[in-house]
Amino acid sequence: MEPSREITEIESAEATASNRRALTRERVIEAATALADAIGVDALTIRKLAAELDVKPMTIYHHVANKEAIIDGMVDSVFDEIDLPPTDTDWKTAIRQRTASARQVLARHPWAAPLMESRTTPGPATLRHHDAVLGCLRDGGLSIEMTAHAYAMIDAFVYGFALQEASLPATSGDELADLAQSMTAAMPDGDYPNLIEFTTEHVLQPGYDFGREFDFGLDLILDGLDTMSNKHRSPKPA
Predict the structure, then answer these.
(1) pLDDT tens digits, one per residue of 151-166
(2) Which CATH number fits domain 78-168+210-231: 3.90.480.20, 1.10.357.10, 1.10.510.10, 1.10.3260.10?
(3) Beta carbons within 10 angstroms of residue 134's beta carbon
């Protein structure tokens, strides 16, 4: 064997061994999250994850029990990315900031929205996040019942919007305009007048961005909750 080739193989073996020694649960979860971002969570397998980490599949099981445990960790890591509602402002402003952060995080991880409330063994970031949001709503004067309504309504909107936004072929700019024009051009004349009107008078107007519907919808929900909560206030016990 040539000396240079032998050195290269030794260095490669040492690098592989170093990678295996450095493998941790955190690294497994991080790699799994990145892989799910690229190929989707349904396509994620232990074998593909092992290849991404340059380890044998069985090595992963030294750090996580199974794929479900990996998904538990992935969901918890996504919750950890979402900003907690700040405690130095009113509840509506705090929830709006937290919710805007959630939308941004879910856009980075389009696989996550259907799984965010599905785990039966939630991790610490998940629990911390839920506790903070509940505290924000209760500190804002919402009763226990209104807090339940508010949390369910807000997150149903956030997760639903994230799924819708991720599934749309385009949401703004020239790409959306070209798509809308090609779709309307294929429609028989006079068959869908309301759809044509909506597309030409709204979607195709300069500056249209589907993402703006998020802010409108969130304001509508928060204002409605605020109105309802003022009728049924129940301060959090000191």
Answers:
(1) 999 999 999 999 999 8
(2) 1.10.357.10
(3) 18
Over residues 57-85, the mean pLDDT reads 96
Using CA atoms of 167, 172, 175, 178 in order, give the dihedral in degrees to the nearest 10. 110
Q: Which residues have C-beta within 8 Å of that of residue 139, sequence separation ≥ 6?
A: 87, 91, 236
pLDDT in tens, 118-128: 999 999 999 99
Of the candidate CATH numbers 3.40.50.620, 1.10.3720.10, 3.40.50.12240, 1.10.10.60, the domain formed by 3-64 belongs to 1.10.10.60
> Residue 188 has what DSSP assignment?
P
Residue 53: which of 80, 20, 84, 78 has the closest Cα? 20
Q: Provide the token pair at 196.
A: 């044509």
CA nearest to 51, candidates 76, 68, 34: 34
Which residues does 84 contact at the CB level (< 8 Å), separation at least 6? 98, 128, 129, 132, 133
Of the candidates 233, 226, 237, the one whose C-alpha atom is nearest the C-alpha of residue 96 is 226
Cβ–Cβ under 8 Å, residues 92 and 218:
no
| Euclidean distance between CA atoms 133 and 116, whole angstroms | 15
Which residues sit opposite 172 in a β-bridge?
209
- Outline where the chain has alpha helix (H): 3-22, 25-39, 46-53, 57-60, 67-81, 91-108, 124-139, 144-167, 173-185, 193-198, 212-231
What does the alpha-carbon distance between residue 214 and residue 217 come to, in Å, rounded to a whole number?
A: 5
